[in-house]
What we know:
The structure is a single chain. Helix content is about 30%, strand content about 20%. With about 130 residues, the protein is of the alpha/beta class. It has one domain (about 5-120). It has a six-stranded mixed beta sheet, with helices on both faces. The N and C termini lie far apart (about 35 Å).
Amino acid sequence: MSQLRFFIDHCVPMSIARFLSDLGHEVFLLRECIPKDSPDPVVIQTAQEYHAILLSLNGDFADIVTYPPEQYRGILGIQLRNHPELIPQILQRLRGYLAEHPSMENYAGKLLLVEAHRIRIRGSISAE
């Protein structure tokens, strides 16, 4: 399996970071790279500098007007909605998706919203 690169926002449970690392992916923790209270634009820019997919629980990154997916290497939003008991289901769904889409190119320009029962993908807003 190819190795993906993830930049893990400070709000993401360590169990998710460990899960990705255990799958063989490269994981960068925000708190080891920049101050924990860094503003969102700094967080996403740092993910870009690490050539990584930003993984966050922060719903602000799901705003495609503020953070147009086509400008980034990928944004993966975990949708817990204050239900940490859903983490095992979300990780199982994510495991399958990552196995089917093992290349960084599969995530560039996309916002993926990972829920227990589905993964929604939003891409660029473009006229065809």
